[in-house]
Design a protein that fits this description.
With about 375 residues, the protein is an all-alpha fold. The protein folds into two domains: about 25-310, Orthogonal Bundle (Hypothetical protein af1432); about 310-380, no CATH class. The chain is about 60% helix and about 0% strand. The chain contains 20 helices and no strands. The protein has helices spanning about 30-40, 40-45, 65-80, 85-95, 105-115, 125-135, 150-155, 160-165, 170-175, 180-205, 210-215, 215-230, 235-265, 270-275, 285-300, 305-310, 310-325, 335-340, 345-360, 360-370. Helix 4 (about 85-95) crosses helix 10 (about 180-205) and helix 18 packs antiparallel against helix 19. The longest helix has 30 residues, at about 235-265. The N and C termini lie far apart (about 45 Å). Bound molecules: magnesium ion (MG). The site of magnesium ion has 5 residues, from helix 3.
Length: about 375
């Protein structure tokens, strides 16, 4: 077993589970969290939830499931290099997108709008809600009863009002304290993963062209490096050789900079991590490069006409479903139905939001088609 740095999260410093349980045999507590996440229903749903490309665009594009696996892989590599708890990083990474609605940001924005009068909807908070209460797998408790540190890592951001309602877990937002380094690196691994795989998917879908990407400094540098090692290389192999260099450059910079900041700040314990400024990060140059890449993706991919044309139907599906279930809670499946029928408006709205947020893209489209008789998206 790898020796952990003194500022890593370990079982002996963990703040434990909400419901006490006997220790696992033949695996550690953090492995148990990872395993519970992998076995959850919400995790399997990630296969049919998408961010940029809806499933029917093609079989080779990332889904939230493959995205989460890539984030987990990057998080583990970075955690290991820094002597951090790999299993905790992996658990946080696998759970980080569980709360996403169908249809990516369009779905989330619409559901948030529908929930405006009832406390809003936020996917990050929803991820926590899934692991804390919504998963129904254990006889003794609701949710997955994960360790405090896994839950802390899942909750990346939160309003002060929500923080107050969350008690212990919300305290760091009120006190402006940092989460574990494991949580910090997963947050950056998420961005690192999607920036690179969206370039790959963008090129594969031909929404982006290789020549266009030469305007992005980090891509151009990595492409030149690939071409100088492999003169004449072209097509998919050139794309992959370029992207693997980008991932490598970003990850290595992240590891080196984070290591340097840990030393600079004199961080020796986990309490030091909580009290210090955010330690995980990039050099100024890499941060600039990453910002340029993100701006490029925003302007050329996320706002591409072929991506945007899904936005309106997606929004209509979510808002129609919301209105329909609010007016007819008897259409919800049990036990939500029984609960919603006798609940206050705001509890009913939350039950409806939980149900819609849990849907995959294609289930939401199918359910909408069944209830409205209209076909908003084909072939899902
Ligand atoms: Mg993500």
């Amino acid at each position: 077993m790898q020796k952990l740095a003194p500022y890593a999260v370990t079982e002996s410093v963990s703040r434990g589970r909400q419901h006490p349980e006997p220790p696992p045999s033949e695996r550690g507590e953090f492995q148990r969290d990872r395993d519970r996440i992998v076995h959850s229903t919400a995790f399997r749903r990630l296969e049919y939830k998408t961010q940029v490309f809806v499933n029917h665009e093609g079989d080779l594009f990332r889904t939230r499931l493959t995205h989460s696996l890539e984030v987990a892989q990057l998080s583990r590599s970075i955690a290991r290099a820094l002597g951090l708890n790999e299993e905790l990083a992996e658990a946080i990474a696998l759970a980080h997108d569980l709360g996403h609605t169908p249809f990516g940001h369009a779905g989330q924005d619409e559901l948030n709008g529908c929930m405006k009068a009832f406390g809003g909807f936020e996917h990050n908070l929803q991820s926590l809600r899934i692991v804390d209460t919504l998963e129904e797998r254990y006889a003794a408790f609701d949710g997955l009863n994960l360790l405090f540190e896994t839950r802390e890592g899942i909750l990346k951001h939160c309003s002060l009002d929500n923080a107050r309602a969350l008690g212990e877990l919300g305290r760091r937002f009120i006190e402006d304290a940092r989460p574990s380094l494991e949580a910090q690196i997963v947050n950056l691994a998420d961005e690192l993963a999607y920036c690179n795989h969206d370039v790959d998917d963008g090129l594969r879908s031909e929404l982006l062209a290789l020549e266009q990407l030469d305007a992005v400094a980090v891509f151009a540098q990595c492409r030149r490096s690939a071409e100088s090692h492999w003169p004449g290389l072209s097509g998919r192999r050139l794309v992959h050789e370029t992207i693997r260099r980008m991932i490598d450059a970003l990850a290595l910079d992240l590891i080196a900079q984070t290591r340097a900041r840990i030393t600079e700040e004199g961080v020796e314990t986990l309490s030091d991590v909580h009290a210090a400024k955010t330690l995980a990060g990039y050099s100024e140059e890499t941060r600039k490069n990453l910002r340029e890449l993100k701006t490029f993706l925003f302007n050329n991919l996320y706002r591409h006409e072929r991506v945007l044309r899904m936005t309106d139907p997606a929004r209509r599906i979510v808002s129609d479903l919301f209105t329909t279930y609010m007016d007819n809670p008897n259409l919800l499946p049990p036990p939500r139905r029984t609960h919603a029928e006798s609940a206050s408006d705001s509890d009913k709205a939350r039950a409806v939001a939980d149900y819609i947020a849990g849907m995959t893209d294609r289930f939401a489209a199918k359910e909408h088609r069944r209830l409205s008789g209209r076909n908003e998206v084909n072939d899902l």
